Amino acid sequence: MIVKPTGTLEIDCYVDADFAGLYRRDPDSSPTSSKSRLGYIISLGGVPLVWKSQLQSEISLSTLESEYSVLSQSLRSVLPIRSMLFEVTIAVGISSAIRATIRARVFEDNNGAYLLATNQRITNRTKYYLVKWHHFWNAVRLGHIKVQKVSTEEQRVDFLTKGLVRTPFEHILKLNQGW
Q1: Distance between CA atoms of 106 and 15, rounded to whole angstroms?
Q2: Helical segments of 120-165, H only
Q3: Domain membership flag for residue 1
Q4: How far apart are CA 25 and CA 37, in angstroms?
Q5: Is 5 contained in some domain?
Q6: With a threshold of 0.90, does the pTM exceed it?
Q7: Please, are residues 154 and 175 in contact by the beta-carbon 8 Å criterion?
């Protein structure tokens, strides 16, 4: 694997979910046939640190719900990594000018999940998300985490959530690994 570090202290996280991706592929009687697959990659300075792909533990009722739950789950890892990075830079005596460049970005390709994470507006249809998945809102509001929109073509974790044909798969490999 060829990884090209950027030389920065940027934490980037790409998240994606495949809503009920096994529906009509697994038998209807299988409990996994209606579950969504989640995937995320967390990198520091362009080097992948954490990657995950698994079926979600519960059944999502919409694409928004499956995408938003993986966004929330990934931030349960990003926030401690960001805090630890600050603590380490202080402990080893890295200047405050360099510490000021530490930033965390999360890339989401689903419009609904992106809007809910950035606008932080609860409606009757989304109020139950508040209890389950909004733990990260304060970090977004304070600017510790920036949620950014990414196009589906540049979504680096599509291969963790679904099978891809050769051309998109090779494009994603190049984005993630440099080859």
Answers
A1: 7
A2: 127-133, 137-141, 158-161
A3: no
A4: 13
A5: no
A6: no
A7: yes
